[in-house]
Write a structure and sequence with these properties.
Strand content of chain B: 15-25%
CATH architecture of the largest domain in chain B: 3-Layer(aba) Sandwich
Order of helices and strands of chain B: HEEEHEHEHEEH
Number of domains of chain B: 2
CATH topology of the largest domain in chain B: Glutaredoxin
Largest interface: A-B, 17 and 17 residues
Shape of chain A: elongated
Distance between the termini of chain A: 101 Å
Structural class of chain A: mainly alpha
CATH topology of the largest domain in chain A: Helicase, Ruva Protein, domain 3
Number of domains of chain A: 2
Helix content of chain A: over 70%
Number of strands of chain B: 7
Number of helices of chain A: 6
Order of helices and strands of chain A: HHHHHH
Largest sheet of chain A: none
CATH superfamily of the largest domain in chain A: Cytochrome C biogenesis protein
Number of helices of chain B: 5
CATH superfamily of the largest domain in chain B: Glutaredoxin
CATH architecture of the largest domain in chain A: Orthogonal Bundle
Oligomer: heterodimer
Radius of gyration of chain A: 36 Å
CATH class of the largest domain in chain B: Alpha Beta
Strand content of chain A: under 5%
Chain lengths: ~160, ~180
């Protein structure tokens, strides 16, 4: 049993090693660029997959293209520009933080800040209103009126209960 | 007076709250309904209304190298096809009809192997003046192809007038392609 398990593990590791060695890069940075690019580019055929996830023919071709260009020493930005000329912004699975996309990235935050600012200004205005409207004299007058009112209420309830 | 005052004070913030909420609701509803009925093409074509990109490849049926600049002088259909592509079988009879009517069609044989491609043409007929042989799909990426079949309408000056993603049929040819080919008055 143990022997079988060991063999299976050996086979699996050989298979994994083989899959790894298909693509060879000059250095680690190239490999990172490649890995990152294929997850950030969208498959034109399957819409909701990156070209890393997709098995469609066009994704395979695009992966090969990215690989070739990375090997030639092109930067991620250069490769993205190349593909955008052909497939448009659509090809970028991770939208750029630039241009009209800025509205999408920061619009909600700006709206939130405006809302908070408006509420803050209105709240402060209301506080000042309450604090500043009545002078001492008026306060006295108000208290008198309230007292009078309360007296009347008391009288009324007394007359009702009788 | 004493009875009225608390009432107005309560009503005011309620209105102040309800109005923006109603406006927001109407805006959102409008946005959603608009999005629901706005039938955008899934893929925006980057090639439409731009010159056909430069590319060259050997012909499928000979060793002769042809260039995209050779597709000039009159309206051409450029059709991306492959013997592996089911929809290409579907549209093929109509392409044969168009070719018989004198429409100039050039093919891009896409990600195919030569043997299968030639067999396809021998068995079903060849509607193409010639086909670019593009086994690795390089031309396809230059054209912004997502899958076969796709058909481009190329003007006499070499501009892409229309990019059709999917099968070509009579309806699309007569209602979209033909009006685009009429001389502008």
């Amino acid at each position: 049993m143990r022997w079988i398990l060991l063999n299976v593990l050996l086979l699996v590791s050989i298979a994994l090693g083989a899959a790894e060695s298909i693509l060879k890069f000059d250095n680690e940075k190239q490999q990172q660029t490649y890995q990152q690019l294929i997850t950030e580019l969208r498959c034109p055929k399957c819409l909701n997959q990156s070209i890393a996830d997709s098995n469609a023919g066009i994704s395979e071709d695009l992966r090969n293209l990215v690989y070739e260009k990375v090997k030639q020493g092109q930067s991620a930005a250069e490769i993205k520009t190349f593909l955008r000329e052909r497939y448009g912004d659509f090809i970028l699975y991770k939208p750029e933080v630039a241009g009209s996309n800025l509205i999408l990235w920061f619009g909600p935050l700006v709206l939130l800040l405006i809302t908070v600012a408006v509420l803050w200004i209105r709240f402060r205005a209301r506080l000042q209103l309450v604090e500043s409207t009545l002078t001492d004299q008026e306060q006295q007058k108000l208290q008198q009126l309230l007292k009078k009112d309360a007296d009347i209420e008391v009288e009324k309830s007394n007359s009702r209960s009788e | 007076m004493t009875d009225l005052e608390p009432n107005t004070k309560q009503a005011k913030p309620l209105v102040g709250f309800a109005v923006p909420v109603i406006i927001l609701f109407v805006l959102l509803a409008g946005f959603f309904i608009n999005a629901l009925f706005d039938d955008k093409p899934e893929l925006p074509s980057m090639r439409q209304n731009k010159p056909l990109p430069d590319f060259s490849a050997r012909k499928l049926l000979s060793q002769e190298v042809i260039h995209s600049k050779d597709i000039r002088g009159q309206y051409w259909l450029l059709n991306v096809w492959g013997s592996w592509c089911p929809t290409c079988y579907l549209e093929h009879p109509y392409l044969m009809e168009l070719a018989a009517d004198g429409v100039m069609i050039v093919g891009v044989n896409y990600k195919d192997n030569q043997e299968d491609a030639i067999k396809f043409l021998n068995q079903r007929g060849n509607p193409y003046q010639f086909s670019f042989f593009d086994p690795k799909g390089h031309i396809a990426i230059d054209l912004g192809i997502s899958a076969a079949p796709e058909t481009f309408l190329i003007s006499p000056s070499g501009e892409v007038v229309f990019h059709r993603i999917g099968a070509m049929d009579k309806n699309i040819y007569e209602n979209i392609f033909l009006p685009l080919m009429e001389p502008k008055s």
